[in-house]
Amino acid sequence: MVLGWSEWVALPTLGVQRIKAKLDTGARTSAIHAFDIEPFTEGGVSMVRFNLHPMQRSAELEVACTAPLLNRRSVRSSDGSLSRRMTVVTPISIAGVTWDIEVTLVGRDEMGFRMLLGRQALRGRALVDPAATYCAGRPPRKPRGPA
């Protein structure tokens, strides 16, 4: 599968029908914009609940998510700083193909994309054409303003 440097993806078990992701082969791990991150234990299983805004530059839509906590790992961001992030495993769907990825939870409000898809998630699944965008298709456009 050939994908562009930005694609619309879905995270079905998190309740995210679509989120625009930047495919970044320079990043090892994937990350998603999350806030109100709260770890808890349920039936002896480490879990995490968090909220996210799937639409860029908008806080209008908020999705409440719960997932098993995989681990907490140290991640070096693009500015060189090191932070501890909670990591979950979730299925991702692109162009009708679904597979599990590991994704770290981090505040990405200041970033251009609410989701970053790193090379671990893409390895063996897709090639990235840096000159292309939305190879997997675009969601239907919503009409703007009064008809």
Topology:
Layout: E1 2-4, E2 6-11, E3 16-24, E4 30-33, E5 35-42, E6 45-52, E7 63-76, E8 82-94, E9 97-106, E10 115-118, H1 119-122, E11 127-129
Parallel strand pairs: 1-11, 3-10, 4-9
Antiparallel strand pairs: 2-3, 4-10, 5-6, 6-7, 7-8, 8-9
Q: How is this structure best described in words?
A:
With about 150 residues, the chain is mainly β. It has a single domain (about 1-130), classed as Cathepsin D, subunit A, domain 1 (Beta Barrel). About 5% of the residues lie in helices and about 55% in strands. It has one helix and eleven strands, in the order E-E-E-E-E-E-E-E-E-E-H-E. The chain has one helix at about 120; strands at about 1-5, 5-10, 15-25, 30-35, 35-40, 45-50, 65-75, 80-95, 95-105, 115-120, 125-130. The strands form two sheets. The chain has a nine-stranded mixed beta sheet. A two-stranded parallel ribbon has the order 1-11. A hairpin with a 4-residue loop joins strand 2 and strand 3. The longest helix is centred in the C-terminal third of the chain and has 4 residues, at about 120. The protein starts with a strand and ends in an 18-residue tail after the last strand. The model has no long low-confidence stretch (mean pLDDT about 90).
What summary fits the major beta sheet?
A: 9 strands, mixed
For the record, the CATH class is Mainly Beta
Residues in helix, %: under 10%
What is the CATH architecture assignment? Beta Barrel
Low-confidence stretches: none
Strand content: over 45%
Class of secondary structure makeup: mainly beta
Tally of alpha and pi helices? 1
- Tally of DSSP β-strands: 11
Strands of the widest sheet, in order across it, are 2-3-10-4-9-8-7-6-5
Task: Return the CATH topology.
Answer: Cathepsin D, subunit A, domain 1
Average pLDDT number: 88
Number of domains: 1
- The termini sit apart by 38 Å
Silhouette: globular
